[in-house]
Amino acid sequence: xxxxxxxxxxxxxxxxxxxxxxxxxxxxxxxxxxxxxxxxxxxxxxxxxxxxxxxxxxxxxxxxxxxxxxxxxxxxxxxxxxxxxxxxxxxxxxxxxxxxxxxxxxxxxxxxxxxxxxxxxxxxxxxxxxxxxxxxxxxxxxxxxxxxxxxxxxxxxxxxxxxxxxxxxxxxxxxxxxxxxxxxxxxxxxxxxxxxxxxxxxxxxxxxxxxxxxxxxxxxxxxxxxxxxxxxxxxxxxxxxxxxxxxxxxxxxxxxxxxxxxxxxxxxxxxxxxxxxxxxxxxxxxxxxxxxxxxxxxxxxxxxxxxxxxxxxxxxxxxxxxxxxxxxx
Length: 329
Hints:
With 329 residues, the protein is α+β, with helices and mostly antiparallel strands. It has helices at 2-23, 33-42, 44-57, 60-68, 85-113, 260-268, 280-283, 296-307; strands spanning 117-120, 127-130, 136-139, 144-150, 153-166, 175-179, 182-186, 190-197, 200-207, 209-214, 217-223, 227-231, 234-238, 253-259, 275-277, 286-291, 309-313, 318-322. Helix 2 crosses helix 3 (44-57) and helix 3 (44-57) crosses helix 5.
């Protein structure tokens, strides 16, 4: 899987570099315009890599790399005399060689940086990682985070689970966290992101400020003590908090009218056995209260006592069903 991903990333980088090379030529064939538009429209990844490659193309890092690369220096190619077409052709070829060399160097510089660093934890496991920029991230149980730190951009994707970010402030490089369609733009801060389902994310700020939005559009600015919930593309503010750190670090969860499926998902991060809701109607059952999610039995007993459900412990799984419903766990 990793090889396949790298091959795809390499191909996208090569295509982006080729388009940049063509677009930076003195004359661009207008007939190629639709092809370029189609390539850009084919995937958001194409557009992101093209933007990153364009920034690299214009950066000092590329100039320095070209200065040490085994390429023909552009400054060594004098302007072609207008009267000598053959000589002009040779110099044009030399310029193309320089452009090709620049494209190659750009690819060599960019592709390694496109590699995504992945951090994972298992059920009941927590982990602290320090990113390449000095930022710190604490991962909850059963969490996966993908991080990319580039010279001009920093970002992470919360694939599943929950993470507390303490981001090192940099004026020149913003930091973005994606959780499904939810986007969190860091303004220099410490905050928590909880991916509760593919369409549901909760964000709480403990220091500084963040912008929370959907599909790249900012909807709400959160400051210290503020929280927001993003459900099915809608951003809503949540009651302010006074805590100095996320409750999951001490194994607790304060539920305020959240679906039972969300609570069970958080308990699942600490349970090696699958926890199954055997009736779909239970998934949306609204739950409120304070639950000790790191203690699976204690959390499920609290749910059973308060919400008219039965919890059945089987050898391979834990089943939750409506009270009085006798089924196999």
